[in-house]
Amino acid sequence: MNTFLEQAVRMALAAALCGFIGIEREKCHKPAGLRTHVIVGIGSALAAMLGVYYFYSETARIMAAVITGLGFLGAGSIIWSHRSVHGLTTAASIWSSAVLGLAVGIGAYWLSILFTVIALLFLRIKRIERKL
Q1: Which pLDDT score is estimated for 115?
Q2: Model-wide pTM > 0.90
Q3: Which partner for 105 in 6, 17, 24, 45 could form a disulfide, CB atoms 3.0-4.6 Å apart?
Q4: Cα distances (Å, whole numbers) of residue 9 to 42, 65, 82, 106, 119
């Protein structure tokens, strides 16, 4: 079923779920925050929906291209300085937002919600460790 309402719900859910991850990154004062994660998520959701609704024989190829492309974007957020590496979690969260957007875009709503809850739990662990 290819309705405007269904597509709008998928886009809004991708924005909301990726937004939660982006807000958590903002709270940690990371350079890739709310806007980055939402844009990555809705762009990925759109790519998945284009595959599902319009280029159904190419859906897997479209999704693979998004995953690969976002790997390069995430790699740009990793910084090596003074014998330490920074930005790995941010890179992982950008990549995960892309995959999350793809999942929402194909209609895997509950799996996407479960992923978001688990991701947020593990993103918060470092803050919990510092308080302990």
Answers
A1: 97
A2: no
A3: 45
A4: 11, 24, 45, 12, 22
